[in-house]
Amino acid sequence: MRVLAIDTALANCAAAVLDDSEAHPCQTECGAEIGRGHAERLMNMIGEVMAESSTAFKDLDRVIVTTGPGSFTGLRVGLSVARGFGLVLEKPVVGVTTLAALARSVAGSADGDPILVALDGKADEVYCQLFHSDGTPLDEPEVKSLTALASGLPAGIRFAGSAARRVAEACGLGPDRVLSERSYPDIADVARLGMESDPRSAAAVPLYLRPPDAKPATSGRIERQ
Description:
Blueprint: E1 2-7, E2 12-19, E3 26-33, H1 38-52, E4 62-66, H2 72-89, E5 93-96, H3 98-106, E6 115-120, E7 125-131, E8 142-145, H4 146-149, E9 158-160, H5 164-170, E10 178-180, H6 187-196
Parallel strand pairs: 1-4, 4-5, 6-9, 9-10
Antiparallel strand pairs: 1-2, 2-3, 6-7, 7-8
């Protein structure tokens, strides 16, 4: 299977072409931690990995894209591009959460212990999800405060993600419980997870765990009578 993977959910902007076949294996990646400006960089990165891997768009079997948690603007960029390719190419578009991709990056290193992947949110909030040590989900993604997370976690819990150290400290646990403090997933993990996912159950829709900060303007409106 040959896929195009896209990640614009967080500070990173990345694209990759991955082929896991025995006949024509390849893994070509391009990415940069840019913070903002994903729309200006993404298409060039896609063009670069497609060219370096000698891949024509018609050769792709599916398109994979991160669905969040992440920034509203970044998610819209990646999802719009992925859906556009899927529509034109008539190929499945598979969504992968940033939490699941980060869990995959540390799967197998937790010695059988459960893993909490946690990303920094607003103030003391974190976006988080529990996973088995092999990276499979134990529950659904959610947004929680550090105080709420400090109780009720499974024994032997390990942590990953940008908020991993903060959560460990809130739980009274030491840095030895932290597996990774990555703030965004590796694009190769996004690609591999998307290859393994069923397009029928891994829809490319944004995962919003909290409403946007922007509020509709009300000043200057004329109320209808």
